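We were asked to recover a plausible sequence for a given structure. The inputs and outputs are reproduced exactly as logged, with field labels preserved.

PROBLEM: sequence recovery
POSITIONS: 351
GIVEN STRUCTURE:
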């Protein structure tokens, strides 16, 4: 077996998370967001597993990603392209039956000039990234309805803060938009939006990071970890009190310790900001990172993990013990960044 770092992807847990999220909005169609290689875990395998479980609608960022999803799921599911069309990619929409999400008047013109294919309309209700002006249904309603959209949508900016005033403001603005499109399905809730209540569900929800065990749901909602990231111990060695560890000598041993160097680094997606704060787990024992994360190596304190600490033994850095959001908080980042940053030499396994 390879000694490379490995990410064991738990497809059954991803499916279980999708079903948990679907149960929150039983009257809505729960889709799946698969952008960025299914958040680093493998588009083809994740898409196929969710399709087998009954998911029939997917969202990705680019048409190139949509083509990969189409190959995995077959001809029937709907695949929406969130970033919309560009002149150089129009052929992919038609070749793979992809649905463009139109985010600007320029994209509307481009799509209209290319024919009458299905589209979605995305309105900016407060996040101010992509989206048509929220006033357009009032000023240009007839022209927009003539596009025959199969979906109208918007995106929440602060859903991870349930009490933020912008959530209610965006909901109210979106309701005005949906009123202008009677009979057209609507979508507002992202992962965190799924937790805000059924008012936010409309006809489609769009969970992404929650499918993969990320986000911080209310206590009543239990999500499963989607991936176990582990790597091999390369060496185990003692240090004396006062010895320094790693580049920059940022860690000084407070007492005599037993350390282990693990074959995992920022080239594999463990950010340098995880230096001196990440935790590896060895046989259920937490082993703090000591010193800086380097390109290929991490050093951890295994003083309390004897006799398990041996060369060739694997240490968990994401998984049942090393929870995604806990590790992200330690590294002052988000679970999104940890998952999508998993490096190309990390082996993806699908048991």
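RECOVERED SEQUENCE:
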């Amino acid at each position: 077996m390879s000694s490379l770092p490995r990410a064991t992807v738990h497809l059954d847990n991803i499916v279980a998370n999708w079903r948990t999220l679907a149960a929150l909005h039983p009257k809505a169609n729960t889709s799946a967001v698969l952008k960025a290689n299914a958040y680093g875990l493998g588009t083809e395998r994740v898409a196929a597993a969710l399709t087998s479980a009954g998911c029939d609608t997917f969202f990705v960022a680019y048409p190139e990603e949509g083509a990969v999803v189409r190959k995995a799921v077959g001809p029937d599911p709907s695949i929406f392209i969130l970033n919309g069309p560009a002149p150089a990619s129009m052929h992919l929409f038609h070749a793979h039956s992809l649905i463009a999400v139109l985010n600007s008047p320029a994209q509307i013109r481009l799509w209209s000039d290319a024919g009458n294919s299905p589209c979605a309309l995305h309105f900016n209700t407060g996040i101010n990234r992509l989206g048509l002006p929220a006033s357009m249904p009032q000023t240009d309603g007839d022209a927009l309805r003539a596009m025959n959209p199969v979906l109208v949508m918007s995106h929440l900016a602060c859903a991870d803060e349930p009490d933020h005033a912008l959530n209610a403001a965006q909901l109210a603005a979106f309701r005005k938009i949906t009123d202008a499109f009677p009979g057209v399905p609507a979508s507002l809730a992202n992962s965190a939006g799924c937790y805000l209540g059924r008012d936010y569900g409309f006809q489609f929800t769009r969970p992404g990071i929650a499918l993969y065990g990320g986000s911080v749901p209310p206590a009543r909602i239990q999500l499963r970890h989607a991936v176990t990231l582990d790597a091999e111990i390369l060496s185990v060695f003692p240090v004396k009190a006062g010895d320094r560890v790693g580049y920059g000598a940022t860690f000084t041993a407070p007492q005599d310790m037993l350390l282990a160097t693990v074959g995992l680094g920022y080239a594999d997606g463990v950010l340098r900001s995880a230096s001196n704060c990440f935790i590896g787990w060895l046989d259920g024992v937490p082993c703090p990172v000591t010193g800086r994360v380097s390109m290929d190596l991490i050093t951890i304190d295994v003083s309390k993990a004897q006799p398990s600490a041996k060369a060739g033994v694997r240490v968990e850095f994401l998984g049942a013990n090393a929870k995604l959001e806990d590790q992200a908080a330690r590294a002052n980042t988000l679970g999104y960044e940890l998952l999508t940053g998993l490096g190309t030499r990390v082996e993806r396994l699908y048991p």
